[in-house]
Amino acid sequence: MVPDHVAVFATTILLLPMFYLLLAAPAFLLVSLDIRQVAQLLRIMFNGYFLTLLATSAVGMLAVAAEGRFAIATGIGLVVAMTAVWRRWFLQHMDARLRDGAAGDPNAARELRRLHWGGMLGNAVQMAVIVACIPYIAIVPA
């Protein structure tokens, strides 16, 4: 069995934005999302995370596909598709809660906090699945 350097590199690059969100997002648990600027900063952070994850996973998928590992490329392609759908849904809901908060809805901050927890949980699950798959990705079958 031979190590697959391209697949390991693509997986590592794919994990970087996930690791960033894993470290950065909990800091927002310490502040109130009633403050509009804080809630907007949270939205900006998630938007940047999604865009970075889309870019890194698309490049990783193409690199692995060019190497001829189509099963892994399909798996990373699922990350691309899931991230694109999740980004649209997540940011639409976050924008709606920001509008509700600006209109004076007292539940808007609580709903933003639920989205925040959901985003962190989704990222952690996705990251755990990818880390669990590394032993299968790192070795080229003989």
Can you tell me about this structure?
- The protein is an all-alpha fold and 142 residues long.
- It has one domain (2-135).
- The protein contains four helices and two strands.
- The chain has a two-stranded antiparallel ribbon.
- Helix 1 packs antiparallel against helix 2, helix 1 (5-24) runs antiparallel to helix 4 and helix 2 (36-67) runs antiparallel to helix 3.
- The longest helix is centred in the middle third of the chain and has 33 residues, at 70-102.
- It is elongated and about 60 Å long.
- The N and C termini lie close together (5 Å).
- The relative contact order is 0.20.
In short:
The protein is mainly alpha-helical.
Q: β content, as a range?
A: under 5%
- Termini separation comes to 5 Å
Biggest β-sheet, characterized? Answer: 2 strands, antiparallel
Radius of gyration: 17 Å
Low-confidence stretches: none
Number of domains: 1
Mean pLDDT: 90
Question: Helices and strands in order, then pairings?
Answer:
Elements: E1 2-3, H1 5-24, H2 36-67, H3 70-102, H4 108-137, E2 139-140
Antiparallel strand pairs: 1-2
Helix pairs in contact: 1-2, 1-4, 2-3, 3-4
Features:
elongated; single chain; mainly alpha; 142 residues; 4 helices
